Input
Amino acid sequence: MNAYKQIIQEGLWKNNPALVQLLGLCPLLAVTNTVINGLGLGLATIITLVASNGLISLLRNQIPDEARLPVFVMIIASIVTIIELSMNAWFHELYLILGIFIPLIVTNCSIIARAEAFAARNSVGPSLLDGLMMGIGFTAVLVVLGGMRELIGQGTLLSQAYLMFGEAARGLTITVIEDYRGFLLALLPPGAFIGLGLIVALKNVIDVKLENRQVKAAPIDAEAETAAG
Output
């Protein structure tokens, strides 16, 4: 149980691919100008991570070491192709917006890294959980960054929600700031870098505070153990 808890903590926080490993930054910075764009790419990445981790873990004993990386890339590329064709069929407008960044999931270093570092060395269950948690961690950063940029850039949240949830979701758009003229920098690439930098800085501040709290609590725990002994 502790092993699964550690996998969850690593994927969501301690080893988050976007905030700690700083992998997959190209799509992360390019498409996160709205919440929906970030969510769309994030869900595609989650499916890719879970499916590729599961297949690679299942086949790990049959894959020769000298052909390991090419086989990993072929498996990931096959999964991404299925996702790309599915999005083109059922989410065509969103697919057009995300464009080249859907097929570029194949080259996302975080996916190949998890295949090599985890799925190729562990059983199917932990590998599936690792892919899911890493994917959720990456998607959370996509959505938060997309929300920041959308809110500051155009004063809304969940703009164009119908692209993912259908025509019934047209009313989901939240106008936070009425008659807002917008802030173009937030929607441009420099705004993505600034936003991601702020998120990384916030995580580092939280980590330092948690570490300091643990350090302060350690002597108290030691004294309690001594008294009990």
